[in-house]
Amino acid sequence: MNRRTLLRTGGMAALGFGFGACAGKSAPTEPVMRSGPRPRPANDLVPVNCSWGRVIHTTVGLRPFRESGFRVEPEKLDGKTIIHNYGHGGGGMSLSWGTGYLAADMALAHTSRRAAVLGSGAVGIAAARQLQRRGFDVTIYAKALPPHTTSNMSLAGWTPTSRVITTTRRTPQWDEQFRFAAEQTYRELQLMNGRDYGVTWIDRYSARDEIPPERVESSRRLLPSHLDTGREVLGPGEHPFPLKYATRERRMRIEPSIFLDAILRDFMLFGGRTVIREFSSPRDLMSLSETLIVNSTGLGSKDLFDDQEMTPYKGQLTLLAPQSDVNYGTGGGLHSTSGETGVGLHMTPRRDGIALGGTAEKGEWSMEPNEEARQQIVDGHIEFYNAMRRPWRTT
Ligand SMILES: Cc1cc2nc3c(=O)[nH]c(=O)nc-3n(C[C@H](O)[C@H](O)[C@H](O)COP(=O)(O)OP(=O)(O)OC[C@H]3O[C@@H](n4cnc5c(N)ncnc54)[C@H](O)[C@@H]3O)c2cc1C
Questions:
Q1: 348, 323 contact by CB (below 8 A)
Q2: What is the CA(283)–ligand 1 centre distance, in A?
Q3: CATH number of 3-28+40-63+201-251+313-387, picked from 3.40.1000, 3.30.30, 3.40.50, 3.30.9
């Protein structure tokens, strides 16, 4: 489907907005069936000023996907203890503090209180902080520091299940680790909220023409129910979007550049050191003075530790110039064209720009933007926001 056909045929439905049937029409008047109090209307939302002229850049990152989920476990290698902590897929920002907690607890079984952490993405820095909290003297070794990590290219919402869980290869033990990691990270991010860590709550809307069905996804069942912030259904006339219905959820938003700088600064303040160094094989690790090593090299673990389960899940975002009066997000789920690869429209406002997404291309190693996807994402959002009603208030 080319760009023109996509737009002509109501491509937004195909891209996850469900856009089409009533685009551009005034809001229909039929009531939404619901019990309980009416939700707060959302008619004062300012549309994103979306045009090709406002595009500032497109970023690409390779999510470190592992077929059977992230790996947190110790391994002996000659005289060293390696604690693996990698393979977080599309959920590394949402699980990092929890898997770091698990890794740091495993480290306590070791006699030394000096530790090396390999990797300086969200997962490595969070693990290093968890080790410091347990009294370890920590050095991070990494071939690149923020802002040159995959974690900096992240969206990054609290999405612990995103490209993390697979249905066939999970074990009950892994599920338990996952729940613990999700809950710990949620708590940690909560404590950072409003404290200059780039972690905040925003409303996120998804627009559609049908009454949204009940949520029954297995991914939600895997999460503790108290972590589900719930959602409201807004009916015709209660929201400005060019479709009949919209759902509203509270979502945690992490602004990756602010967040990573802040936690790396904390690591240094607590006496941590960083060393720029690339490791080519486990043999290279033998030259480290530390006997305890936490491996958080993300996708780098594929070659470094010959983990053939590791696969990139390429993702890209296109940033528009910042717009401070947009204080909500929009989006639908990923529309998958092959079950594992696709484009899904979503928008998140950040201080570094309005982030438009997104893509997921399994097995794709290229760091070049996918131009066709970029066109679909920007054009899809232009169409959506042009059709959105301008702010008005109910009396
Ligand atoms: C477009 C996009 C959107 C995303 N959205 C979300 C989201 O909404 N929520 C969410 O939770 N997650 C999201 N993610 C996923 C998230 O970004 C990753 O799960 C996370 O960044 C993984 O962190 P990491 O620290 O394991 O890896 P990285 O950030 O890649 O860090 C790895 C570190 O290891 C170092 N390293 C690697 N190999 C070697 C080596 N051989 N020697 C020395 N050092 C090495 C690197 O230099 C780097 O410092 C998204 C990702 C993308 C691309």
A1: no
A2: 23
A3: 3.30.9
Global confidence as pTM: 0.90
Q: 3-state DSSP call for residue 144?
A: coil
| For ligand 1, atom 20: residue with the closest CA | 92
Give the CA distances from residue 334 to residues 18, 90, 143, 252, 360, in Å, rounded to whole numbers and listed in that order: 12, 12, 32, 18, 8
Q: Is 392 helix (H, G, I), strand (E, B) or coil?
A: coil
Give residue for tokens 């290869």. Answer: 169
For a ligand 1 pocket test, name from 57, 151, 283, 367 the mutation site with the most ligand atoms within 8 angstroms of its C-beta: 151
- The residues, any chain, with a CB within 8 Å of residue 239's CB and separated by 6 or more, are 41, 42, 43, 45, 205, 207, 246, 248
Q: Which fold has domain 66-196+255-308?
A: Rossmann fold (3.40.50)
Is the pLDDT assigned to residue 162 strictly greater than 70?
Answer: yes
What is 238-295 written as a DSSP string? SS-SSSSEEEEEEEEEE-HHHHHHHHHHHHHHTT-EEEE----SGGGGGGSS-SEEEE
Residue-wise pLDDT tens digits, 218-249: 555 688 888 877 889 999 999 999 999 999 99
Q: Ligand 1 centroid vs 93 CA: distance in angstroms?
A: 8
- Bridge partners, 204 (sequence order): 249, 329
